[in-house]
Amino acid sequence: MAGTANLPASKSESNRALLLQRLAGGGHLTHLSEANDTVLMERLLTQAATTDLLDAEDAGTVMRFMTAYLAVTGWRGTLTGAARMKQRPIAILVEGLQALGADISYAEKEGYPPLHFEGRALTPAAGQAELRVRGDISSQYISALLMIGPTLPGGLRLRLTGEIGSRPYIDMTLNLMRHFGATAEAGPEESVVVQPGGYRPADYEVEGDWSAASYWYALVALAPAGSAITLPKLRPVSWQGDHVIQYIMKGLGVATEFLPAGAGVHLTQVPLAPAELLTQPFDFTDCPDLAQTVAVVAAALGVPLRLAGLHSLRIKETDRIAAIQAELRKLGADMPEVAPGIFEIQSTDFQVGNQEIATYEDHRMAMAFAPLAMRGPLRVQHPQVVRKSYPSFWHELARVGVVLP
Ligand SMILES: O=C(O)C1=C[C@@H](OP(=O)(O)O)[C@@H](O)[C@H](O)C1
Ligand SMILES: C=C(OP(=O)(O)O)C(=O)O
């Protein structure tokens, strides 16, 4: 396998940039993602002006970022989502907004979407608003609150509690907020301080999506000797925490070379790291979206990798821990919990041979298992799930000669 594969633009950057552009009242965004999650974000921001029913479908960032935006703009109506979204908790964000004066209630189950907004503008007490927010469920609540911080009369101070997961996404939020003219800094004792003063219009070019790049790393890791792939539009200095895939995959047989002038990366094959390095537990707390990719590659290579920091996977598009386990079992591998919070890839009789991989309405299940096509015939159910983050995924695979039945 060899060639160039186009990545989608980062959906995390795109969805933040769209919200910040709206709050700033301008700025030109280039290379926005074509993913459904981003198309949806853009559509809901526009529709909010004319409708009282919005549907965030299965997009976590859209549900959480729109909740904060609708609260700060005094919108009146109901924000709903797909069946799975109604099982993804949102109380931490709602309680934070309620403490700032929002009138939001639960239209169905307490603590979960859909949400009803009464249309009352936020009325934080005079001075800087201060909230304590748990950081161990989803960083998206924190990003959502931070992004409306500059629009509050006294700004906002968040004190984060518990073990903070997905921290690079909070840093990405702060970086993009500063790009749009806000003053926002992480301070001592897990506090984050956002000064009042709003945003200024700014232009921004979205980087390629490093989470999507992970599937190409997996393909190179599992491809015949001599395979290589070029991925344009990735930068050596990235705001996306998932750029750590370049270090993780170095151990699993893929080297990354950055092309001159920010033109992207070139992936080639290298020998696996020594076994003793590969059996150290790898912590996915900061990069949960990479866990499925890495689990599948390790299983296919027969590496008894240990994975930690997976708890947030249970409340994403599906229970991703259960989904990985069930699908690996079809292939002669498994990922049991061998100690509290530590999962181990066990791969005794790994074979790819016409299995049907279920995808659980989760784009990352489809894309993480697809690279196994390098090792034998394999079917992926409901391939259209990739539209959430990478609509052209199957097309790009076909362009380098990888076609699943
Ligand atoms: O802020 C973001 O753009 C995201 C944060 C992460 O979610 P959690 O903070 O819920 O772990 C990640 O899994 C998701 O795909 C995108
Ligand atoms: C978890 C994800 O998305 P979200 O939480 O935005 O739905 C993801 O893309 O893997």
UniProtKB/TrEMBL annotation:
Q: Which InterPro entries does the record match to this protein? A: Enolpyruvate_Tfrase_dom (IPR001986), Enolpyruvate_Tfrase_sf (IPR036968), EPSP_synthase (IPR006264), EPSP_synthase_CS (IPR023193), RNA3'P_cycl/enolpyr_Trfase_a/b (IPR013792)
Under the heading Pfam families, the entry gives:
EPSP_synthase
Q: Which Gene3D superfamilies match?
A: Enolpyruvate transferase domain (3.65.10.10)
Q: What is its EC number?
A: 2.5.1.19
Reaction(s) the record says it catalyses: 3-phosphoshikimate + phosphoenolpyruvate = 5-O-(1-carboxyvinyl)-3-phosphoshikimate + phosphate
Which top-rank group of organisms is this from? Bacteria
Enzyme group, top EC level? transferase
GO MF, one term, reads: 3-phosphoshikimate 1-carboxyvinyltransferase activity
Family from the record: Belongs to the EPSP synthase family.
Protein's UniProt name: 3-phosphoshikimate 1-carboxyvinyltransferase
From the broadest rank down, the organism's phylogenetic lineage runs:
Bacteria, Pseudomonadati, Bacteroidota, Cytophagia, Cytophagales
